[in-house]
Write a structure and sequence with these properties.
Strand content: under 5%
Helix content: over 70%
Order of helices and strands: HHHHHHHH
Oligomer: single chain
Length: about 220
């Protein structure tokens, strides 16, 4: 567990620093990185779908629908980033800490399995995801408090980490379901300790855009 956790931590820190640096250096650099993430995620999705026994027409539908979703997610996320990059980064930290919390708590405490879809997911890991989501969000949100354009009422501040983390975990389970169907452990091997890019951001690509849309409605 120690070596795996070390790889995972280093990868998370590297990705997190890359996002933060690009966000503050230039909006277009960030846009480019975001778009590259979309393309690589789609490529990994294609590789997964191609390994599943489906009729060709269903494979094509899966591939096209996922690309449409990724492009819509890209548009939503970049628009929020342009409006308030500090708020965007605060919400992004929920996703990062949710992932780390799930892994650390799950490996440390083990216990009852969360679902048959992903045997490695445990109830303790799910709880850990929620706990660290609150920690990550409040630390970053209040650190950027004076710079934020988007201001939230206290009720929303309490609700958002739980909501975003829930979608992170559902997104993780969604990709895990298809990996099991494809009989693969990882979507790729581009990131040490995580496997593919989609392994790393499976929850994030669902939680961020959907979360931003619902937050805006609220």
């Amino acid at each position: 567990m120690e070596s795996e956790l070390l790889k995972r931590t280093i990868s998370s820190l590297f990705l997190m620093c890359s996002v933060f640096l690009s966000a503050f250096i230039n909006d277009y650099i960030f846009l480019s990185i975001l778009f590259i993430v979309v393309i690589f995620s789609w490529i990994e999705w294609i590789n997964i779908i191609e390994k599943i026994r489906l009729k060709k027409i269903y494979r094509i539908i899966h591939i096209i629908l996922f690309l449409i979703y990724l492009l819509m997610a890209f548009i939503v996320c970049f628009n929020v980033f342009v409006i308030d990059k500090y708020f965007f980064l605060s919400i992004l930290m929920i996703c990062v800490f949710s992932d780390v919390g799930g892994y650390v708590f799950g490996k440390t405490f083990g216990g009852k399995k969360l679902t048959k879809i992903s045997p490695n997911k445990t109830v303790s890991g799910s709880i850990g995801s929620f706990v660290l989501s609150y920690v990550g969000f409040f630390v970053i949100y209040f650190y950027f408090n004076d710079l934020l354009f988007v201001r939230l009422e206290i009720e929303l501040l309490v609700f958002i980490p739980f909501f975003i983390s829930s979608f992170c975990q559902l997104g993780d389970l969604f990709i895990s379901f298809y990996k099991r169907k494809a009989k693969v452990k990882n979507t790729g091997n581009i990131i040490p300790g995580h496997g593919g890019l989609l392994d790393r951001i499976d929850g994030t690509i669902f939680a961020l855009p959907i979360g931003f849309i619902i937050i805006s409605l609220l």
